[in-house]
Every structure is written in structure tokens, then in C-alpha cells.
TrEMBL record:
Keyword Transmembrane helix: no
NCBIfam families: pyruv_oxi_spxB
UniProt key word Metal-binding: no
Name recorded for this polypeptide: Pyruvate oxidase
InterPro entries from the UniProt entry: DHS-like_NAD/FAD-binding_dom, POXB-like, Pyruvate_oxidase, THDP-binding, Thiamin_PyroP_enz_cen_dom, Thiamin_PyroP_enz_TPP-bd_dom, TPP-bd_CS, TPP_enzyme_TPP-bd
Species in which this protein is naturally found: Schleiferilactobacillus shenzhenensis LY-73
GO MF term (any one): magnesium ion binding
Similarity comment text for this entry: Belongs to the TPP enzyme family.
Entry EC no(s): 1.2.3.3
Keywords: Thiamine pyrophosphate
Every Thiamine pyrophosphate enzyme TPP-binding domain range: 403-551
PROSITE patterns xref list: TPP_ENZYMES
Coiled-coil blocks: none
Length: 622
């Protein structure tokens, strides 16, 4: 980043008379009062007054020097997602500011409170077309719930305090633009923060009433194939939902962000829908006649929810979400946990359901397939064995930062998570390159916990310069790069479009050599038998406080695309087939039926849903 040549700071501004403090220091004291103890950024001349304050406050506010502002903003967003506390990043005027935008949009889309501090040229040079000077507020008008240009030095700490409140209120982004010279000005050394004990109170949540619950129970009574679709709005009430699922014999599908909130080993937990899915979840949802969505923000609803007709109940704390995903039959304005509690209190235990038993059997069949895939030894290396080793060495409370691409699908299927774990992804914005920043945030916010970073070669290439940030701050992160010289997530999409593969093959790199060039220990693995030794080295390095990188050279095979299975009902029976669009570019093996489809993906023991329904005497009528 090219910096402006700073104007000399008058000596009188660096002297602190009794009862005054530089405005930038007053601002940092506001941040400290809110519990912020580190921020990410890269210096620029327009931000020097804040850099001066960071030096003054270095015992209380840690400055993390990232190598690209996008990484800083993504790390701030990850901090907020992992801790619930506001994340903080900064950029200097011009390109430093615009480089923040990807991370800020990630925060906005995933409802993470983030504050961005933006440098601006001295106010005396504003509106003179000064170097790197331009009107920054319009740039952030869309991404930010609150954006202000500081107008006086005295107002700087107040505006930052207000920005934090707005970020928390909207669970989104606040932006404060700071003319550089204002930060040096001495202002009264007063208490500018509005932090109060009331900020720590739990906010009241809407509660369901008896009429709503009884209406839900009546709809369940009249349904033949009900299913819960549960998002992160269930919060820490997963165990209660399991109890309700058993009591009412209703299987559970989850959104990606709810992984770990419902125990993976619960037999009625079918996993995710759509591409990053389990076969059982996609199949059972495809035949459902009642969907009960609880706290679920599902970005693929317009695809999955439109495949067939069903009755729809939506439970949410935000009334504005009603009907967003599907035509609404019943909306229940309620906290998810309170809804489950009242359902348990007002419901009767139902008899064992053939449909529920079939859903469980479908999931057990799918889990056996996943176990088969992970327990093989392969040369060349395939992705499943990497997750086998991660699951072996991960601590019970390990934190995972998972980058965008095939590793999202594979982590949802193969990574073992419980409520003890924390994990972070770029969910709705799906920004490639979020893995390294997420790992930085995890290691800084939870220094006593094990941190894994999992990324493909395409995503890692976007931010790999900040591997040196891990080294600079001695962050013991295990970096796992699944390298196949392909943007495989997009390659799989192009498989099903009548086109040639285009733009998705990338040059391979020696990430282990690159890593060692930055001072980070690394190994390369090419077959599954090499994985145990690689992870042993990674554990040894991180236990001594050093980052480590595993460059896992895997094939570019496609994981089984269960989203291509289709279910229809005709002549009193269910029929399963393959989507006609599958293999539209004719690059894959031609398949004529579901059994061939399963076998092509090493799943000869997988069963179709009609087979499982027949085994459990599930009625075939509507």
C-alpha cells in the first residue's frame, strides 16, 4: 500500500497537558471499554494518528498487522461470529478502504457486528483532490447500517461509541471515517464510552402461546411425512429438539450453520440439504408433506423448497422473515428454544412411525457409506482420509475455520462437530479466502484452544500472503490445504451444464515450499498412508506454539452429488431417478439408473429411498 507523506506533527500536539488526551487515544479507550482488545489493519499515511494511539495504548489494545485489508475485515467478521463481540478492522484512505469491502459484506450477510475505521486525509486537504482523497461514505452506504464522517476531534470518541451500539443493534457493519489530523488533537480526557451493565442483559425473546402450539400439533397430526428444518436459531436447545423429535417421531434436517448444534450421532439428525448434503436429508425432504422450519435462514430455499408441494410452518424471532422462503401456512413468532419447550409440554408421545424409522435407516445407510469412504487407503490421496485424520487428532473443543469450496461440502459430511466446538465459514456471502482470516481470529480470540484451517488451493491462493501473519504472532494454527489444481466446486457445477469445462483449472503450486519460505514448517502428502506422520508433525509444532501447513495433494474427483437424485410419486409408488441435467457436458460416465449412480461413487451398498420405504412398510399414498 502506497502511503502519503505525513505532515509533520506540531510538538504541542504530542505533548499531553493535564486533563487532555489525543482524540485517537480517547477513541481507543472507548473500544477498550467495550471489551475490544485487538484490531486488524495495514498502516497508511491517512491513518497515522490512530497508529500513534495504538503505540500509546499497546499494553491494552493489540494491533495485528495483516498483509491485506480484506484479510483484516474477514478476520474481524470471524471474531464477531466466533465470540459474539464486535470485530474491528481498519484501512487507510483510498485503496486501503476499498480493500475492506469483501470482509464487510461477509459480516453484513452473516449478521456479524463489525466496526471499520477508515482513514481520511487531513480535513484541511479534503475536497482539494488531495492524494488518495475522495468521498468515502457513499462507498460504504450499502454495506453499513451506520456510516459517519467525523466532523470534529471532540466528536471522534462519541461517534465510535455510537457506531458500536449501532453495529450491535443491527448485528451488522458500522463505519467511521476519520480525518487523520483530528486524531492528534488534544481533547478532554473524559469517559466517552456509554458501556453499562445493562448491555450484558439477555434481550427478551418472543414466546409462543397455547393457540399457536396447538395449531402446530394439529398440522403435525394430519401430516404423514413431517420434517423439521432447523437453523442456528435453535441456539443451545439442540438436546431439547432431539427429545421432541423422538417424542413426535419427526426427523430433523439442518442448515449448514446449525451443524454441531444437533448432535451428529443422533439417529434422527439427517444432516444438510442441497449440495452440501446427506443423501438421507435430500431424499426425506423431497417426500415431506409438512416442513417445520425453526430459526432457519436457508439461502437455497428457492431451489429446494420449490421442488414439491408441502405445508409450511415457520418459527422465527424476526416476523419479517415469515414467508421469505416459502408460502406460509402458519407463522409462529417465537424463540426456537421456547417453541420446543412448549411443544414438549403440550404434546403427547406418538407411536413409532414407519416413516421416521425409514428416515433413520436411510441416514444409517448413508453414514455407513461415509465410514466406508473415510476408512479406505488411497494412492493418490483423496479428500475423505484427510477428515479421518482431523477427527482423530482434533481436541473436543477444537475450532475450525473452513474456506469456501468443496471443503464446505466435505466438512459438512465428514467433520465431527459437537456443541463444544466452534467453527466459522463465510456462509451467505461465500467469500473465497476466508479461511486464513478465520483461523487468525480463532487463534487470537481463543489462544488456549486448538485451531484448524481447511482450504482448497484456489481459496488459499487468494490470501496465502497472510500465512506470515500466523508466523509473526506465533499463532499455532494447523493449516490443511487440499490441493488439486482445480476450482472443483465450480467444476462440478459445469459438469451439469451443456458446456466445456472453462476457466476452472489452475496451476499447481508447492505450498509447502512457499510456507517454508515464510518461516512456517510444512510437509507435502500425496497418499493416505503419509497422513498420520504429517499430522503428528503438525501437532508437535503447534503444541510448541508454531503454525504448521500440510499441503495435501488430492485428486479432483467429484464427491457423490446427492442433489442430483429426484423422487416422484406415480401409480401409488415412489420412484427415484437421476436429474436429466446430470453430466450435461458428457465429461462424466454415462449412467442409466440410480444403482449405477451409487456404484460410480463407490457406493454399491447405498439403497434407494423406495427400497428403504418398502423395508419399513411406509405407506405410499398421499
Amino acid at each position: 500500500m502506497q502511503n502519503t507523506v505525513p505532515n509533520p506533527v506540531p510538538e504541542k500536539k504530542m505533548t499531553t497537558p493535564t486533563g487532555t488526551v489525543p482524540a485517537s487515544v480517547a477513541m481507543l479507550k472507548v473500544l477498550e471499554a467495550w471489551g475490544v482488545d485487538h484490531m486488524y489493519g495495514y498502516p497508511g499515511g491517512s491513518f497515522n494518528s490512530t497508529m500513534n494511539a495504538l503505540d500509546i495504548e499497546k499494553e491494552r489494545m493489540r494491533y495485528i498487522q495483516i498483509r491485506h485489508e480484506q484479510v483484516g475485515a474477514l478476520a474481524a467478521a470471524a471474531d464477531a461470529k466466533l465470540t459474539g463481540k464486535i470485530g474491528l478492522a481498519f484501512g487507510s484512505a483510498g485503496p486501503g478502504a476499498t480493500n475492506l469491502l469483501t470482509g464487510l459484506y461477509d459480516a453484513r450477510e452473516d449478521h456479524a457486528p463489525v466496526l471499520a475505521l477508515i482513514g481520511q486525509v487531513p480535513h484541511t486537504n479534503m475536497n482539494y483532490n488531495y492524494f488518495q482523497e475522495f468521498d468515502e461514505n457513499p462507498i460504504f452506504a450499502d454495506v453499513a447500517a451506520y456510516a459517519r464522517l467525523v466532523m470534529t476531534p471532540e466528536s471522534l470518541p462519541y461517534v465510535v461509541d455510537k457506531a458500536i451500539r449501532e453495529a450491535y443493534k443491527h448485528q451488522g457493519v458500522a463505519v467511521v471515517v476519520i480525518p487523520n489530523d483530528f486524531g492528534y488533537v488534544q481533547i478532554p480526557d473524559e469517559l466517552y464510552s456509554s458501556v453499562s451493565p445493562t448491555d450484558h442483559k439477555d434481550k427478551p425473546l418472543p414466546q409462543p402461546n397455547d393457540m399457536e402450539i396447538d395449531a402446530v400439533l394439529e398440522m403435525i397430526k394430519n401430516a404423514k411425512r413431517p420434517i423439521f428444518h432447523v437453523g442456528r436459531g435453535i441456539r443451545d436447545n439442540g438436546a431439547k429438539l432431539v427429545e421432541l423429535s423422538k417424542k413426535l417421531q419427526i426427523p430433523i434436517a439442518i442448515t449448514g450453520l446449525a451443524k454441531g448444534l444437533i448432535p451428529d450421532d443422533y439417529e434422527g439428525n439427517l444432516g444438510m440439504l442441497n449440495r452440501a448434503a446427506s443423501k438421507a436429508a435430500d431424499e426425506i425432504f423431497a417426500v415431506s408433506d409438512l416442513v417445520i422450519a425453526i430459526g432457519a435462514d436457508f439461502p437455497f430455499a428457492n431451489l429446494i423448497y420449490r421442488t414439491h408441494p408441502f405445508k409450511f410452518i415457520q418459527v422465527d424471532t424476526d416476523e419479517a422473515q415469515f414467508g421469505r422462503h416459502h408460502y406460509l401456512d402458519l407463522g409462529v413468532w417465537s424463540d426456537g428454544g421456547a417453541f420446543v419447550d412448549k411443544m414438549l409440554a403440550r404434546s403427547e408421545t406418538v407411536a413409532p412411525s414407519p416413516f421416521f424409522q425409514a428416515a433413520v435407516a436411510d441416514m444409517q445407510n448413508w453414514q455407513a457409506y461415509l465410514d466406508h469412504m473415510t476408512n479406505r487407503e488411497t494412492d493418490p490421496l483423496e479428500f475423505e482420509q484427510i477428515y479421518r485424520e482431523i477427527n482423530k487428532v482434533a481436541d473436543d473443543d477444537a475450532i475450525f475455520s473452513i474456506d469456501v469450496g468443496d471443503n464446505i461440502i466435505n466438512s459438512f459430511r465428514y467433520l465431527h462437530l459437537t456443541p463444544k466446538n466452534k467453527w466459522v465459514i463465510s456462509a451467505l456471502f461465500a467469500s473465497m479466502g476466508s479461511g486464513v482470516p478465520g483461523a487468525l481470529a480463532a487463534a487470537l480470540s481463543y489462544p488456549d484452544r486448538q485451531v484448524f484451517h481447511i482450504a482448497g488451493d484456489g481459496a488459499f491462493s487468494m490470501v496465502m500472503q497472510d500465512l506470515i501473519t500466523e508466523k509473526k504472532y506465533d499463532l499455532p494454527i494447523i493449516n490443511i490445504i487440499t490441493s488439486n489444481a482445480s476450482l472443483n466446486f465450480i467444476k462440478s457445477e459445469q459438469d451439469d451444464i451443456p458446456m466445456n469445462h472453462s476457466g476452472i483449472f489452475i496451476d499447481d503450486q508447492d505450498f509447502a515450499m512457499i510456507s517454508r519460505g515464510m518461516g512456517v514448517e510444512a510437509v507435502t502428502v500425496t497418499k493416505s498412508s503419509e497422513l498420520p506422520d504429517a499430522f503428528a508433525k503438525a501437532l508437535a509444532a503447534t503444541k510448541e506454539g508454531r503454525p504448521f501447513l500440510i499441503d495435501a495433494k488430492i485428486t479432483d474427483k467429484r464427491g457423490i452429488p446427492v442433489e442430483e437424485l429426484e423422487l416422484t410419486q406415480a401409480d401409488g409408488a415412489w420412484h427415484e431417478s437421476i436429474n436429466p441435467a446430470y453430466n450435461a457436458n458428457r465429461d462424466l460416465t454415462h449412467l442409466d439408473n440410480v444403482q449405477e449412480f451409487f456404484a460410480e461413487y463407490d457406493g454399491a451398498n447405498l439403497k434407494s429411498l423406495p427400497e428403504i420405504f418398502a423395508e419399513h412398510d411406509v405407506p405410499t399414498d398421499n
